Structure formats: structure tokens, C-alpha cells
Amino acid sequence: xxxxxxxxxxxxxxxxxxxxxxxxxxxxxxxxxxxxLPAGASIGDVLRAEADIDIEGITVTTVxxxxxxxxxxxxxxxxxxxxxxxxxxTTGVERGRGGARxxxxxxGRPDGAAGARRSPxxxxxRDRAPRDHAHRPRPxxxxxxxxxxxxxxxxxxxxxxxxxxxxxKARKLRPRRVHRDALLAGLPQEQQPIxxxxxxxxxxxxxxxxxxQNAKARKEGLPEAxxxxxxxxxxxxxxxxxVAEWLDRAEAALADADDLALRDLRSVxxxxxxxxxxxxxxxxxxxxxxxxxxxxxxxxxxxQRDLEQSLESxxxxxALRLSSRAPQPGERLAPDxxxxxxxxxxxxxxxxxxxxxxATLLDAVAYSAVRRSVTPAGVPAEPGDELLGQVRKxxxxxxxxxxxxxxxxxxxxxxxxxxxxxxxxxSPARVAASPGASTAPPGGAGPRARRIPPPPVVTPPxxxxxxxxxxxxxxxxxxAPEHPExxxx
Length: 489
Known about the structure:
The protein is extended, with a radius of gyration of 46 Å. Helices cover 35% and strands 7% of the residues. It is of the alpha+beta class. The termini are far apart. Among the domains are: 61 residues, CATH 2.40.50; 121 residues, no CATH class; 91 residues, no CATH class. Strands 3-2-1-4-5 form a five-stranded antiparallel β-sheet, with no helix packed on it. A hairpin with a 6-residue loop joins strand 2 and strand 3.
């Protein structure tokens, strides 16, 4: 669907076209076909139009007629004096201080004829055996009648937990567009649409927009835009655009360096490796890297302290969730802290707690850093469908706990075998054009690829062996020459 804009007609040309501009502004402006205008259109009218916006400009395709006056629905007019009547009549009756309503007696019964006819009379006691409350089965946890509730077990008192100071919420990175707008303002007007497409999706977005525009121009019989020239402009301007965007993000990160979310700060530092090649970007990148190291060390120490405090105060669920939220990616728990956390989680998962509490602990264990080391102290006797659903959900993450409920953990997904590239098909023309190719007989098989023979094995010449002849002890034997020269005896 084409975007809609409000246009103001500024002038009419002799060739039947009209000039327009955006309503209430000087830009953008253009020319539209007079056949699109409704009857009675004049200069100064503000109309709604549908337009196609591309690299070359804005083309108005449809002009919608102005909205007419809204017609009110027909209503019946009441003739006569108005009547002040309410649709619903309610009458409130106040209750007296003693609690009885005006029409009730002192005992709460109606004071009418039915209540007045009854007179209090003594009822004779019936002959029945006394009830034995001691041998009557009672639900567990409920006291017997007549004991005043003394048999109800007292609630276990919890030790006061130390209050954990709430941590301030980290701010999100909200960069401005100072450097980006300055770069766009310094570019020629014809290059700005190219830059806008490059900012949206890089070079692929420019190729897509260029292909759509050329396809539309081909249908309308208009000249197509040169692909190579437009892509060259985009490739030349894209590094400058990335630097401008990174500078905007870096300035926003430096302004809120102490309160910014650590994840956003790390993303700015990591992206600096692609742009920190000159003094303009190298200095902010060094400052951000130093801030990141300082913030990471402080967050790491605070994370360790919160984890230990949660374990000491008995907040097992909070400690389990904190174990998987390390400030530094890939950070592992200390061995002593990990063993304490696994032991505390296993001790808390008993058969005496409620099913909801057991499910909460299971969910926290499944996403913690010690999920493979937790052994529950017991499981509920009647888990229920909700808890069994949670166990099936996390069976792959905690197979040992799933086995306690008789649920088999799903098999781990195997590694996918690398796909082999299909053989490259060689065209017969290319094989025939290659040097040393043999032509196949007609009706036979196609040309086959040449097989390169292995290099020949070079065997060194044998070395002649000189046998020593018996001679006198003092006589020396001269060695025979390996390669005698021709003519020498």
C-alpha cells in the first residue's frame, strides 16, 4: 500500500499538469497529472494523495476526493415539556447502630405477623447417647470439637531475613543523530536516497531498491538507473555512515557511562573494532573500553556478594536465578559457592513442601548454573498434572530430577553432518576449449575431465662400490673417481 500524504495545489500548467507541495511546508514538492484531481479543484486546495517514494523522488499516483460533511443520523424529536425522570429508582435503608434493620426485631427476625406469632418455648431434651469426639476420625490438621483449637499445630516461625537493597534500574542506550545528520546534510541531493537505503540494510537494501526501481522504469518505458554507478556510491559512503552512527552511539554511552546497561556498553565497545582506525574514533573507543573493564569488575564483585547473601538468608530461588546472570559472559561460579548452592537447592526440594513451591524451585534449578548437581531430598507423593508438565518441560535440562518422576529425558540432538558440496558441472564447450582435451566419438559418452598423472619418481644413480685389495700396511689405496672424465685412463 502506497503511503498517503497531504498535498497543496500551488499552480496549474498549460499542459494539464499541476504543481504541488506538502501541506504546510515548502518541501517536498513536485508535479502531478491533472486528470487525477477531482472536479472543481483549484489552487490552494489541500487534498489527500497516495504517492510512490523512490530514489528519483515522489510520484503522486492517486488523489483522493475531499471528505464531505458528516451527516448526523435522523432522530425523533420529542414535542412537549421535558420530564425529569430517572430510569432506575433506588431507595437505601440505613442499618441501625445495633445492627438490626428497622423492620427486624431484636433477634434479627421480621417483626411482622409471622415473627409475632412465634413465642419462645422450652424444648425438652431428647434421650440420646453422648457423642464420642475422641474416636471420630478428623481431617489431618483440624482440631477436635470442644478443645478450643489447642491441637492445631503452630506455624513454624521464620527468622527475619535481611533486607536486600534494591539495585537501580540500568538505563538503555538512546543515541542521537548528530553525526549522522551532519553527514547527510553535506551530501548532494541525488545521493541522499542512496544513503537512506544503505542505512536501512546496507548494500543488499540498495540492490533491492535499485532492482525494483529499474523494473518499474522498464515497464513504463523510462531509462534505467546505472547499477554500477549507484552501487559504487553506496560502497564509498557506507564506511563513513558506519563511523557516524558509531560516534553517535559512543557519545550517548559516554554520557551515561556509569548508569548504562552493561550489555549496551559492551555492544558499543565490540563494534568499535570495525571503525576505530583514526584519531576521531580511537580516543572514544579507548575511554569506553576502560569504562567497560571498570564496570565489569564492579558488577562481578556485586554479583558475588548478592549470591552469597541470598544463600546466607535462605533465599534459594533468588540465588539460583542469580547464578545464571553473571555480568561477564562465560563466567563460572567458584567451586565452594557452586557446591553450597546445589546443596541448598536439594535440601529445599523436599516432599513436605507444596506442589507450587516445588514447581518454582524446579524452574529455578533448570535455568541455573548448577542444574546438573542438584539432588532433591524428596518428591511430592501426589505431584499433579501441573508439576508433571513442568518436569516434562525441563526433562532435557535436569534429566536426574526427571528420572525421579519416571519421566525419560529426551535424547540430545546430535550434531548435523556437514553438507558436501555437489560436484561442479563442467560444460562441454569449456572442456573442448581446454588445452589437451580429446574429442569424444559421436554417439559416445561426453567429454571426461583429464586426469593429471602423478609426478615421476626420480631414482638417484647407484654409487659404485670400490673393493679394497690386500696390500702392505704402509701402502695407501687411492679412492676411485666417481665420474671419470673422458680420455683419462
